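In response to reviewer comment 3 from the previous cycle, which asked for concrete evidence that the modeling workflow produces usable outputs, we include below a single protein chain processed end to end. The sequence was submitted unchanged, and the resulting structure tokens are shown without manual editing.
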Amino acid sequence: MKILYKTYFFEVSMAVNNIDVRQQNKINVYKMVLSQDKIPRQKIAEKLQLSLPTVAFNLKQLIESGLAVEDGQLFSTGGRKASTVSCVPNARIAIGIDITQNHIGFAAVNLKGDVIDSIRLSQKFSYTADYENSVLDLFNNYTATLKIPENTIIGVGISLPGIVNPEGTKLMESHRLGIYEPAAFEFAEKINHPTLFFNDATAAGMAEISKSPEIQHAVFLSLSNSIGGAIIINRKSVDGDHAHSAEFGHICSIPGGKQCYCGKAGHFDSYCSALALSELADGSLETFFKKLELKDTVCTKAFADYIENLSIMICNLHIIFDTTVILGGYVGSYLGPFIDQIKQKVLELDTFR
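The workflow returned the following structure tokens.
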């Protein structure tokens, strides 16, 4: 069994439909260029089973548009040296907006999927015109600080703690944000770039997979102020019939236990969200883990209980899905020193080691 812990990142993906063969060839060639630091034309042709003229034509278009560059020659023992091509990672940028109950985050992601800039600000959510205007102003200010041409931005992904419709155009429901009917958010329509809404945990899970090409299937468990997740099969998110799959925070862990923010009792969220720890340290996870390092009695007991409940959930997820479990969210970024301890507890519980 494999358990990973990861930090939270943003990802923007754009759906593509009804593409003709030539356009698909161009996409495939560019994906090949993106996947390598440097790659010769011949290798692209071999891997994609395309003719060299087809590869050359598509590379010419990519180079002319500034998305790729011909940047050198590979050493050859004889004959003509093979020229190599590489991508220009910052030729296009996607912007991520992460909206939570009490914060708003912005991130800029390049074509390689690398986060080149990010910021997180205190901003209490309210479903009002004033809040939406504030988000739009913050977005415009943030993109201005990047000092990049307007046409460099290819799209904006907006992540939210709730259920998003399949088209990515509306937030259907969010207990955390107090929204119980579809909300389109007018500020998104005022952004002069393509925009899509994403469930926050699904976006984070797909971002992790995008940086781990060896992983085909995984379960992502997001341990933030609320708990969510993503089920990823063949590198695609499985959203479920009603778009609320992987809401692991609402699995009943302890019947009749602590009340969850949704109103039900005993849900996993009540025991393993970031709030279960940060509330013991003036709302700061960083402070909690510093107190834990100093062997504070209350924090030590709370974290032992946290690890116990988390290990049970990981074991259950592994038994159900039989695949890699990735831990992320706010707490996930602190779990590195404890990952062996978590693995050991899971192994003690798991029948299928």
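Residues 90 and 110 are 5 Å apart (CA to CA). We consider this sufficient to address the reviewer's concern, and the full set will be provided in the supplementary archive.
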